[in-house]
């Protein structure tokens, strides 16, 4: 089907709102669609506001100022200075988990990370509070040890890689002493390790290098473009030892984490174009569990979630990836907004807000 740019002429609307005005680069106005008929409150509910106006071109700081002054009700950009805002407007700051994590991934086929003890040592040594700070504070991230983030079916809090691990599954703090014991037992201390990062990974790469240096490795960082990263990290011949990344699921399903990154079929030796995950991990037994969970997903979602939880714990124990943080998003709304609702995929449900 051919696709063409409709420009600023509004297209017909099927939902509760339609575009009534478009000033390119400045403003988009939406008003109630007179032809909308509620057919399912669960699938497509009616909206509450009579009109919504999107102003474009403000900086995040200007957006916050407009909300504080009552000239705006919400901003698409995450608010800067989350902690200060939360202290002043606790009922107006809404903190939500995203279905995503930031992590370091290991090539499990090459030294030193072909040794389970080394991978587990990195997870034990990581001070995840430092990772949270590096990514912008509690408004942007929260410590985690596991692959699945909150809100994804199968999520059960789990963290064996912390000082004083307990049944709560909460990360408490790093255990550097135990981590160094594992490294000493592996006889890999002092090895040269190169960590690869995308050009947009920001502080994640330096943070992973810092953790490795604390464990006695001669660690360094290579920052690459997205194509160069894929060509090298996903090629078994290049033997890239470690890489950092961020993964946000397309939809809140455990399969969007495990099937995409940990199945034996996720890589083809010497073929980076047909490889999705440069950890080169393959466990046939875990593969069978993932296949079983996929089959049960529609007929028995609770049974599927139980299997995904088990897979999450098994892969966390194997430390193929070492998650540092689960991602978060902070919304800042005006004092006159009520009925705040958040969807883990679509974000704030603007049409369900009450504006007094």
Structural write-up:
The mean pLDDT is 94. α3 (116-125) packs antiparallel against α5. β1 (17-23) and β2 form a beta hairpin. The chain is of the alpha+beta class and 356 residues long. It has 2 domains: 17-97 and 330-355, D-Maltodextrin-Binding Protein, domain 2, CATH 3.40.190.10; 98-328, Dipeptide-binding Protein, Domain 3 (Dipeptide-binding Protein, domain 3). The protein has helices at 60-68, 82-88, 116-125, 128-134, 176-186, 204-214, 226-233, 255-261, 284-296, 301-318, and strands at 17-23, 27-32, 51-55, 93-106, 141-143, 192-198, 218-224, 242-248, 321-332, 337-338, 342-343, 347-348, 354-355. The radius of gyration is 23 Å and the shape is globular. Helix content is 28%, strand content 21%.
Structural key phrases:
Dipeptide-binding Protein, domain 3; three-stranded antiparallel beta sheet; alpha+beta; six-stranded mixed beta sheet; about 350 residues; single chain; 10 helices; D-Maltodextrin-Binding Protein, domain 2
Write a brief structural summary.
This protein has two domains: 17-97 and 330-355, Periplasmic binding protein-like II (D-Maltodextrin-Binding Protein, domain 2); 98-328, Roll (Dipeptide-binding Protein, domain 3). 28% of the residues lie in helices and 21% in strands. It has helices spanning 60-68, 82-88, 116-125, 128-134, 176-186, 204-214, 226-233, 255-261, 284-296, 301-318; strands at residues 17-23, 27-32, 51-55, 93-106, 141-143, 192-198, 218-224, 242-248, 321-332, 337-338, 342-343, 347-348, 354-355.
